[in-house]
Amino acid sequence: MSALTDLQRARLAQVADLFIPRASGMPSASDADVQGEYIDRVFGVRPDLADAVAAGLAELPETLPESFAELAALQLTRLRSLADAVTAAYFLNPEVARRVGYRQRSVIPIRFDEDLDTLVASVRARGPIYRPTPEPGGVA
Amino acid sequence: MEQPATRTKADVVIVGAGPAGAVAAKRFAEAGYQVVCIEQGDWPDYSTSHVADEYLELSAGKQWNPQPSVRQAPSDFPIDTTQSDVEPLIWNGVGGSSVMYAGIWMRLMPSDFRVRTLDGVADDWPLSYEDLSPYYEQIERDFGVSGFPGDPAFPDITSYPMKGAPIGKAGRMMAAAHDQLGWHWWPGSNAIATEDYRNQGACVQRGACMWGCINKSKGSPDVTHWPDLLKMGVKLITNAVAQEIETNAAGLATGVVYVDRDGVTRRQEADLVVLAANGLGTPRLLQLSTSKRFQHGLANSSGMVGKRLMMHPFATVVGVFDETLEPWKGVWGQPIYSLEFYETDKSRGFVRGAKWNVTPTGGPQSMAAAFPWGGKPIWGEQFHDTVKDRLGRSLAWGIVAEDLPEEHNRVEIDHSTTDRAGTPGVKMIYRMSKNTTDLLAFNVERAQESLQAAGAKETIVAPLIRETGWHILGTATMGDDPETSVVDQWGRAHDVPNLIIVDGSTWPTSSGMNPTPTIAAFSLRAAEHAVAERAGQAVAS
After folding, report:
1. pTM higher than 0.95, yes or no?
2. Above 60 in pLDDT, residue B6?
3. Does residue A73 sit at the B interface (CB-CB below 8 Å)?
4. Which chain B residues in 334-393 lie under 8 Å from chain A, judged by CB atoms?
């Protein structure tokens, strides 16, 4: 894993806010420290993404556009990888996870459905829907 | 470096430790055979699973990704897909691709075995639903299947080993919609233990079945079969790449040449050779096994080895709802399924049909993915509102389309690439037929109607993407006629009496069902027959 330089992190913060701006009561990507702890956590699980992010940053124009739409219009080849990594880092922030209502999967013991006979009654009432095996040499 | 090593002759050597190989190994071992299994990969490492932490979606993009070209594991062999519409999704190791499957458990329907007779296309199977039915029942016990019996889409499903998992909010909503439309639906059947069962633990509904089930609830043979097989004395050789099936002057198989984990070439001799290496690996090994007698590959006098590749293209239609569904709180598998449009209705302009199952849409990262959402990227000003709309409020119909066999869809040896053992890779040539395209289009329209009936405020047809090749079938087809098929109804190669193929490569037609139950049932039936016929079995002396 190759850690990002300070310069790369600053650049990441800028472009990440084009992907995920502060809006609708939610923090922006840089508010959520995507460029710091959370991109490092992404690389911890997916070291293969470190090179993709570095390459994506290197591909950006020196002066970033004002909006994601303008950035997307440049049709940069690595933009999708960069956006995916930023998105993953963003949702790793616990406060973001709390606000969207999802952090990780939880253990839920099974409680069986007890009403299935009632639920399938109309399906059963319509009868078989399969074609039986035809007799040899003929169509059923 | 070649060493004779492994001089002990086995009764049977099996190539592949996935569902087909594990089932055969179990039956042979129960009958007292000395069994050796050669597996190109290793055991799944569940310690790398992230199903219980916040990194689940990240790990699904690499380590637990079913696409070999993404995963790039040492056990994966090169597959050239430049001439294929679909990417193969497989996992090479103990348990096979079922380590990464969703556990969806569907038998075939009777008509699947009689496509020629009923619909005038492709070929009938040389066996019937009734021939396979008792083996399904045994396999369902062995894989720890849960479900709700009595579906009128099948003749005789009267019980499952365990009660089905809850169908959840999403399942109930779609069931109500189908009742309103008068369309079939049924509670999902899955190879997912809903209570502690043999080697399986009770499912805890993380909805992460495909990315390393640490509870061992999912019925994959690394859990359901191999621990017991090892205790029974079956010898499992992992990280061993099979390179050739050897034959003698009489045309009988004598054993398998493989490269072990240290790069040493070895030879496992056996009376019977069983191939369970899936629709890619099996034709690859047959095509690599050339000799003076079998110049075009082993068991290939028909010329059909590698041909008739079928891939089950998938379609997905998403519904976005106002209601909170929290689809990650349940099994991933299939909460419910529908076979309303499975049987042929020629007025639709195509033959055969498709199976649908409700499927979750995932966690927050998945809300920004190109699949299944398609269309414009969601980033920018609308990012948060789009995530809020989709996350926990969406579900999808996954649609498995029957794919009819065509000889030009095929698997060939690719001598320009090699795996870690120096064995040539394969090339897939696969194009979707018009029947399949029309079939998918029809079902996509009906799925939109289904979701709208359930109250979806928006439906999204996922782009047809390449990464859907879970089911690789047909490349060593089964039939009664040695001139047009590779194996008979017992999986026995027409050309080589002591070579048996038990995986999905034997399928004459693909059905529209998830194939693992039928692959396993066929393997059990084939092994059972071999055991019964042991006294008359021709073997190399």
Report:
1. yes
2. no
3. no
4. 339-340, 342-343, 363-365, 368-370, 377, 379-381, 383-385, 387-388, 391-392
